[in-house]
């Protein structure tokens, strides 16, 4: 069985070698400015104010320390709450880097500081993406803007639209995260079922994380929620939190995991069977694998995202199982869940550069569940599968 998981493995030296590092953040800001000009008729777009940390990092290269980034037609400014001005200036030299006084660093005053600085620079209107800004932050920003006579427009999903089409270098980071995650998974299984049975879900999740870090990851890829390890009937929960339940012979063990490196992530799921296959899984597992393959067949550039969801969902339901209650796939990049969103009935189009998961499942309450998740990169005229671990039933049986 373990031989099936050995194909495509990477050496530890390869996993721990330095990842590519060069991103052109100035070009990203130029693309944002081009978008601002393109949609200026529907939203005031003299500038765009950004406060989501991942978005700030995407456009500036600064992964921490900058609380606001304001992109104007030419240049802009960054606001930091920390004594990191020198470091920030090195990353975004064409921006002014501002350090508010201590009296301006609480949330209300900080937003007022940002608005006041825009007004001082002659900016009369600014766009924000409210979907990437907390409600409280938006209200404080809006109130400050109203007091100072600035018009606020909503730039919904504009940044997501830019981020969801990955640059070649971003794909390299993500591919490295997939390689690390798969090699760590192989290591977890190196002692077979005997190395899993009798160990808690929490312990197995911790070991998998430690193995990924040992192979060069910065951390596991789900810092907000944690790796999912779900044993027996717990596998029927799509988003189970690992606990003290022990993995046992003859049960399913669902593992949803990924690595993070350089800010980028991977996201994979496999459902294992320890020693033997539970009765429900003998029929259900091939159905889930068929759903994954059905989605893969229609996943191509130019396809409507709803088509991919429908292909997987209809396969599961046609076999007599209840439909899964989530979109069949999502983008992965700086966030573990980001655009594109492969949801039912979505008319949005898959484009070159998008990287997405496909993760159909069958979930039977109080019995068990099965989920298989792969990652796919959309090219100009084809789609590449990024993960290499097998998904067939025979390979999932761990002796």
Task: Describe what this molecule looks like in 3D.
- Residues 28-164 form the Creatinase N-terminal domain.
- GO terms for molecular function: aminopeptidase activity.
- The chain contains 13 helices and 20 strands.
- The strands form 7 sheets. It has a 4-stranded mixed β-sheet with strand order 1-2-3-4.
- It folds into 2 domains: 25-163, 3-Layer(aba) Sandwich (Creatine Amidinohydrolase, Chain A, domain 1), CATH 3.40.350; 167-398, Creatine Amidinohydrolase.
- Helix 9 crosses helix 10 (201-214) and helix 11 (279-298) runs antiparallel to helix 12 (305-318).
- It is elongated and about 70 Å long.
- It has 399 residues and is α+β, with helices and mostly antiparallel strands.
Distance between the termini: 7 Å
- Taken as a percent bin, the fraction of beta residues is 15-25%
The CATH class of the largest domain, by name, is Alpha Beta
CATH topology of the largest domain: Creatine Amidinohydrolase
Strands across the major sheet, in which order? 1-2-3-4
Largest sheet: 4 strands, mixed
CATH architecture of the largest domain: Alpha-Beta Complex
Residue runs with pLDDT of under 50 for 5 or more positions: 7-20
Q: How many separate domains?
A: 2
How many distinct helices? 13
- Average of the residue pLDDT scores: 91
Give the overall silhouette. elongated
> By helix and strand content, what is the structural category?
alpha+beta
Helical proportion, percent range: 25-40%
CATH homologous superfamily classification of the largest domain: Creatinase/methionine aminopeptidase superfamily
Instruction: Give Rg in angstroms.
Output: 23 Å
List how many beta strands DSSP finds. 20
């Amino acid at each position: 069985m373990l031989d099936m998981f050995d194909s495509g493995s990477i050496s530890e030296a390869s996993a721990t070698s330095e990842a590519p590092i060069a991103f052109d953040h100035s070009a990203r800001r130029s693309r944002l400015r081009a978008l601002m000009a393109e949609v200026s008729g529907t939203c005031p777009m003299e500038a765009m104010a950004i406060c989501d940390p991942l978005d700030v990092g995407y456009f500036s290269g600064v992964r921490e320390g900058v609380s606001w980034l304001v992109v104007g037609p030419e240049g802009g400014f960054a606001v930091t709450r920390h004594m990191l001005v020198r470091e920030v200036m090195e990353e975004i030299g064409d921006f002014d880097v501002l350090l508010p006084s201590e009296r301006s660093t609480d949330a209300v005053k900080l937003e007022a500081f940002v608005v006041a600085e825009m007004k001082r620079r002659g900016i009369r209107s600014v766009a924000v993406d409210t979907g990437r800004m907390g409600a409280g932050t938006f209200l404080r920003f809006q109130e400050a803007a109203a007091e100072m006579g600035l018009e606020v427009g909503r730039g919904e999903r504009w940044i997501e639209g830019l981020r969801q089409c990955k640059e070649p270098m971003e794909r390299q980071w993500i591919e490295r995260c997939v390689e690390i995650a798969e090699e760590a998974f192989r290591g977890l299984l190196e002692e077979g079922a005997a190395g899993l049975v009798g160990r808690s879900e929490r312990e197995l999740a911790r070991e998998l994380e430690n193995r990924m870090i040992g192979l060069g990851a910065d951390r596991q890829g789900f810092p907000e929620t944690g790796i999912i390890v779900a044993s027996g009937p717990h596998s029927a929960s799509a988003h189970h939190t690992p606990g003290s339940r022990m993995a046992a012979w003859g049960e399913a063990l669902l593992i949803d995991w990924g690595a993070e490196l350089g800010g980028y992530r991977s996201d994979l799921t496999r459902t294992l069977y320890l020693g033997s296959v539970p009765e429900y899984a003998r029929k259900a597992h091939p159905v889930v694998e068929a759903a994954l393959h059905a989605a893969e067949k229609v996943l191509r550039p130019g396809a409507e995202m709803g088509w991919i969801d429908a292909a997987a969902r209809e396969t599961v339901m046609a076999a007599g199982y209840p439909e899964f209650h989530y979109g069949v796939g999502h983008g992965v990049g700086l966030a573990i869940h980001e655009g594109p969103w492969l949801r039912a009935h979505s008319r949005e189009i898959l484009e070159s550069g998008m990287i997405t998961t496909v993760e159909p499942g069958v979930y039977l309450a109080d019995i068990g569940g099965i989920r298989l998740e792969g990652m796919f990169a959309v090219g100009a005229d084809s789609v590449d599968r990024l993960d290499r671990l097998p998904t067939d039933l025979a390979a999932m049986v761990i002796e």
